[in-house]
Amino acid sequence: KQEVTQIPAALSVPEGENLVLNCSFTDSAIYNLQWFRQDPGKGLTSLLLIQSSQREQTSGRLNASLDKSSGRSTLYIAASQPGDSATYLCAVPDQTGANNLFFGTGTRLTVIP
Amino acid sequence: NAGVTQTPKFQVLKTGQSMTLQCAQDMNHNSMYWYRQDPGMGLRLIYYSASEGTTDKGEVPNGYNVSRLNKREFSLRLESAAPSQTSVYFCASSLTGGQQPQHFGDGTRLSIL
Fold first, then answer.
1. What is the pLDDT of residues A19-39, one digit of tens each?
2. Hey, which of A47, A70, A102, B1 would disulfide with A35, CB 3.0 to 4.6 Å?
């Protein structure tokens, strides 16, 4: 079964700093990888989806990279803002055919003004 | 622009009680999902419905039942609640069965005493 790990579990940075969040997965035969944001008391919002054929995907200040062979993805956030404070989750699809995502436990980011 | 709506937002039950969590989406999506989120664990799929009239078990279906009432609504029922079912429950949807869950509700926080 696919296992998804995110380290660190929590991260605090001063406003304006660039930062990287890490995601690793055990089975490299993935179709894609998705990054989500979760605000306290809220559901998940999809940020970026990288197909297995892609190496990077960008949206505004966010850049996600994917290295299938090493089983890793990173989410780069440029010029962090207090509004970026949230939990960031990565997820990969179930390759067995079930319409499921395997989620990491997330990194809780706090951007300090 | 509601998206995925879950009711109730909070609920406290006693062991052995039953309850139904409601989920409705207004995006004309075919597929709907129920996940649970527990501290230190990623979201785990309980049940999903690839299309109206079909339901399938996910990773952790024991103790739950589901009903796809129509295209819009997908309910999750706990017949005899147990403390191990204390969790945050998320409903999600996607346009087709071939897609991964994309849109999430804000969750139902359920405590079982």
1. 999 999 999 888 899 999 999
2. A47
